[in-house]
Amino acid sequence: MTETDPFLWLEEIDSPEALAWVRAQNARSLALLESDPRYPALLAEARTVITAPDRIPYPHFLGDRLANFWQDEEHVRGLWRCTTLDAYRTADPQWESLLDIDALAAAEQRNWVFQGAVSLPPDYRRCLVALSDGGKDAKELREFDLAAARFVANGFCLSEAKQSAVWLDADILLVARDWGPGTLTASGYPFILKKLSRGAPLDAAEQIFAGTASDVSVGASVLRDPDGAMRGVLINRQVNFFESERYLLTSHGPVRLPVPPRSSFRAFVAGQLVFSLEEDWGPDFPTGALVSLDLAASLADPQTVIPALILAPGPRESVEDAAATRSRLLVTVYRNVQGAAASYHVDKGGWHATPLPLPKNASVHIAATTDREDRAFVDVAGFLDPNTLWLVEPEAGGAEPVKSSPPRFDASGTVVEQFEAASSDGTLVPYFVIRPKALRTDGSVPTLLYGYGGFQVSLTPSYLGAAGKLWLEKGGVYVIANIRGGGEFGPAWHRAALKSDRRLAFDDFIAVAEDLIRRGITSPRRLGIMGGSNGGLLMGVMLTQQPDLFRAIVIQVPLLDMLRYHKLLAGASWIAEYGDPDLPDEAAFLRSISPYHNLKPGMAYPEPFFVTSTKDDRVHPGHARKMAARMQAMRLPFLYYENVDGGHSAAANLEERARRTALEFTYLTRKLMD
């Protein structure tokens, strides 16, 4: 199919012909959706929720200050600002402006999107600000003076690339980027790490590590004690999406650590390197566990260092977050997709846990930590419970709520339930149902089912602000499916759906849909589904293989051509997840699931709504373009919206996010509520 693909021209992202096709499809679909009499109200509701001025200004620690990136009607692109902790605790903190992205974009006539900053401890005077053109993963890095709130004249400035950089000291960066021809992996990421000195041109940078072009990427972390003194450099060579080699940089060059390839570096605290395991490490350290290695012992002789167990989750548990404060390790653990948090401290080689006094039966996420003090912010929410930000002081064992979001919709008549559906192999798959208390069980209730199922990403409870206002308040049911491929029950839940076992994730999703119908909650006429990125592949498979089960399908920034995905942008990095189309056996399976290759003329498919972004440099917009064009050639119905900005989120700012949300729920309302 790929050799004779008539729609390859749509893979030329910015070609005049491809963009003309995009504009025509946008015009047709937007004319239909935006002319719906319900669209203006849905847009107004989405805008009210998403741009609410009383939403939580989530902070990150910036030395002895707190910083926040804020977007509103006045600051559409956003304002990076800071305040003190004492001021932040008040109802109306006074903020000091650091960088106005709207003003910068206007002055430079660039479509800048702020992508964060990397600061230099211990004084936090200098940082590298990341700026993206339209929301792409590729970014420009510029040195910024935090005290003067301006860019540093003749400071570090790294041109646009998919790159990473960390401060070795005030005058040296460790940089992984595109250094010229032959320095990027097949996935489009850097595999060469260099030391760049202040004032030196890029071609004078000193190479300190190189992976290979077949890797995914290479990057580095600088390990510092709480007072900012450097203790070491940890290099990560990502061989494939799930396997990495870790090296400590020594005076004799890089020395490899003995950690398993399937593991993730989580934190450095109290002289300990903390890793989570995605495979067993001998008989004592099971898959899913948190373990530590003593840095000093690792530098002395990495081959004889003995790991210590921090935590080994149970069979229906998973470690979600782990982050360091000055002397504590904070960990969130989910039990049957319900969160809890604890702090751990190391003493005489052993780790000891202290539970944190946070609400139970909720979603718990570490929002920000600092290694200057034993302090952190933890975000707590539920499907119907608005987010509350807690200030945690783990050494003292205290926790207090400091900010909360008001309700965005009336949840008084709504209830949350958790069910399980038996999949094709008998595995019980959990899912959440958020529904009216007075539910009719005659299959007549409009229901939206969301799924992802990949890359060990967990779908944990989160407040349904926009969905609550635009869907639940209008009588709809919202469902989250925790299918295999995700991380809800640790690495084993993810591994169960890799490569040719991916069909189990699809079977899980179908089982949840059929269970909803069996329970009388909904029916195929009233059932819609939604998913993005890897979830967009899930949606495409449901469209082509279960067209009678659904009435509406929202396919967001999707993968759809599974025989060419590895040739498009970052696609080669996902071969460990999906399989290699260049290997005959794996290609046969990928062809059997590839939505683009399984469309059939004359079939009665539900009319899908494709949503993608021209600026997405992670999942190529050509997936959605080609699928829609093929449906067009077969005279099959579809709707299509491609945002010219926005990157992989398909929205570069809050206004674009509100518009996309309103378009999606207008489509769902037309399909499921009419």
- List the quaternary state of the chains: single chain
Strand order of the largest sheet: 30-31-33-32-34-35-36-37
Strand content: 25-35%
Q: Unreliable stretches, pLDDT < 50, 5 or more residues?
A: none
**SS class:** alpha+beta
Q: Percentage of helical residues?
A: 10-25%
Describe the SSE topology.
Layout: H1 16-34, H2 39-50, E1 60-62, E2 65-70, E3 79-83, H3 85-88, E4 96-100, H4 101-108, E5 112-119, E6 126-133, E7 139-145, E8 150-151, E9 157-161, E10 164-169, E11 172-176, E12 192-197, E13 206-210, E14 217-224, E15 230-238, E16 244-250, E17 253-256, E18 263-269, E19 272-277, E20 290-294, H5 295-300, E21 308-311, E22 317-324, E23 329-335, E24 338-347, E25 350-355, E26 363-370, E27 375-381, E28 388-393, E29 398-404, E30 414-422, E31 428-436, E32 447-450, H6 465-470, E33 477-481, H7 491-495, H8 502-518, E34 527-532, H9 534-545, E35 552-556, H10 575-578, H11 584-593, H12 595-598, E36 608-613, H13 622-633, E37 639-643, H14 654-672
Parallel strand pairs: 32-33, 32-34, 34-35, 35-36, 36-37
Antiparallel strand pairs: 1-2, 2-3, 3-4, 5-6, 6-7, 7-8, 7-9, 10-11, 11-12, 12-13, 14-15, 15-16, 16-17, 18-19, 19-20, 20-21, 22-23, 23-24, 24-25, 26-27, 27-28, 28-29, 30-31, 31-33
Helix pairs in contact: 2-14
